[in-house]
Fold this protein.
Amino acid sequence: MTELRNVIVFTVGAARYAVELRWVREVVSLGFVTNVPTAPPALGGVCNLHGAILPVLDVNVLLDGVPGLPARQGDGALVIEAEGIVCALRVDQVDHVASLYETAGAVTDATGRPLVLLDPARLIRRALELVTALAEHPT
Amino acid sequence: MSDGEFDFDADELAMLRQLFRSEAQDALETVTARLLAGGSARPSAETLTEMMRVTHTLKGAAGTVGLPAMVDLSHRLESALAALGRDPSVWKAETADRMVEVIDGLREYLDHPTEPGADAAAAELRTQIDHIARPNRRAETEPPAFVEPPPEPVLDSTSDPASDATSDTGPLPEPKAWLHVEPERVDALMSSAGELLFDRTRIERRVQLLRTLARDLARTRQTLHEAIVDETTARPAKSLLVEAENALAGQAALLSQTTAALLDEIEALRRTIGEVQRGLTRIRMESARSLMAHAARTLRALRRATGVTVELRTVGEATEFDKAVAEHLVDPITQLLRNAVAHGVEPPEERAAHGKPPVATITIRARQDANALVLEVSDDGRGIDTAALSERLVATGRWSAARARLASDADVLAALLDTGISVRGEADELAGRGVGIGLVRQTIAKLGGEVKVSSTPGKGTTFTLRLPLSTALALAMLFKVDGQVYAIPNIHVVDTTLVEPHATTATVRHDVLPVLRLDQLLGHGAATDKKPGIVVSFAGKSLVCTVDKIVGAREIIIKPLGPLLAPLTLYAAATISGSGKVQLILDPAQLVRRTHPDAPVTSLGDPGSVPVVLAGRALVVDDSRAIREAMTSMLGSEGWIVDVAEDGARALQMTRQLRYDLVVTDLEMPALGGFELIARLRKDERFRTTPVVIITSRASPEHRRRARELGVRALVAKPITRRKLLEALAAR
């Protein structure tokens, strides 16, 4: 069993996720979310974060291809940075900063409840792929 | 006095007056700064002399540009300064304030010296100026430099439009903001702009080369086709295949060379554009000094109006701001100062009771950190009473009682910015007028920045304005689709119109233009109603975009979309509205491509300057470098890709590798002469009919005869002119 310290645990819909704290720049409450027509569903919109344009991603689409709830003003979000890209993941609830335990590939928290450890770099690469694919084959 | 009495025509005069206004504003600003530096103490004799010098210069310049009232006012101000210098007892405690007031009045007057109502303002200023040095005496003793009839007070400036037309100098165009820039900054920019031209020429040449290559490839394909169908009896398929293979080898090599060169040239272009941008940014910068001087004046006025004594402390005056940003900061700073005086600063007794110095201090700090310009306005007053503020939020119905209970102090302070609510029970004069704190936040948000407030009870309040380091401002046409606001760069918007339901074209000024249903592309617009249309023109192609509602042209800040959104080419960038919402800016090039799918990806600039016909690839052979360069330039501007060789031998070598559509050669050259070169080329199948032009200083009949034999298209006598060359190329 290995221990992974300093992860932030959050929920999106019914699913529980975790991401290492080192990827997280900020936990914010989203400002007005501007819809981006012609963008893939993984891109839930864009927000103003300290005067910069912040893309808001839908974790559910990126992982399962199934859209979650649309991002709205006031929703919680984790601002993450990886692959030179800063973006936000819409979350329903941020639980706490905790340690995770991995046994034979299964990740659980201290109470033994399972959750999914996210790799932000992979998520962002996936998002970039989806955006690029759509741009190259516009409908 | 009419314009006819000046040495200038109306345009020149208008321009000179603009220059004068700019110069005078600066001069008066200097005077104010000197006055403010001294507080209420009498300025030194040197300072007074300097101030007199400035006003004297002003007087002379005002006369030159035909503003007699300004001459008079400068003269009076100069006299007042002289009186102050002569007799120290004339200086009173309030004299500095009076002078600042007068100078502010003069500066305001200077903005509209020829408008109706200006005369009344000048009369008012005259009285004020005369009052400065002689508060206890009457003003009639000294004759003015210019005697004017006492002006009638202008009650309604619109009542008699004819008087506008016949007023002494006629209306001037709206005053434009003038930039004062050090010449070196402009020179640097000019050289960068020159470099841009070189970059463009280099890239255009490569593009032309690529076009020629595309044509060559089509020919090669034709050769291959002939080999495959084997219809031509003239040559065996094998020979055709060999020829095609050879051609392909050359073309592939050329393609990879060109691509590599193009990448280098684009990199060079990127660097030059970066320099231009940096140069423009430097031109637009100004120090925080004038902003701080303005704040000092505002505070003096507030002090007089309220009787509240406040000292101003400024830190970081050398910090540079984008001029456009600095202009927009005046109102927010004024509001924050008002706010501090009205709400922050306690009466002296209260301060004393808390062990504070009796005179309150407001500090304005400007600084630049890693990624932002920061402006802080702080007071050492009582701080913001978050409990009282929370109560007011509930009392005014903005917050529910439950929300107020849950809110932290930070939440309450943030609400102050959102609503601009006042802490004091009753709206007094200061808090009730001008832009509110909420408007401060809006103004800063429009500039792409943000406002934060922090407060410690009993210690004071600090408003922190963070602004982006560089601000790219642009005019954009804003419109709505599905309730969301979008923008198109206004430079590409030529008109607006109304589009019939289901129409696929619209007629705008006799042109039939394709319609792009943006309301459907960006939203769920139904094509059943007439829709407003924005006429967009890009690279010579126009179209009409249907939208739900046209908002109008606005100045916006351009924000990059970032790498994740960059592949969505429909959007060029984004902007942030006053309320902090992101608005997407559409790329006109992409809109045009949707209705003109065949249009080239990029335009090579002004269509008029681009060669109409792509000529092909030319080889220039001459042992003079000057002539090679001149020919390259002339042919290049006619659309030719030009290679050069210094003699016939080198040229022959080059023709083995590439085929040319034109050969221009000198006759007398080392290694291999012109006629010899042509004779050998004619033996090569590929050059049997290629047009050849001879450039020579000796066109004897013998030369002409030989040229005819070799199938030379024309002989051009040196010196070569563009016209001669064009005639030769046109010859058949």
Q: What stands out?
A: The longest strand of chain A covers residues 2-12. The helical segments of chain A are 59-64, 120-136.
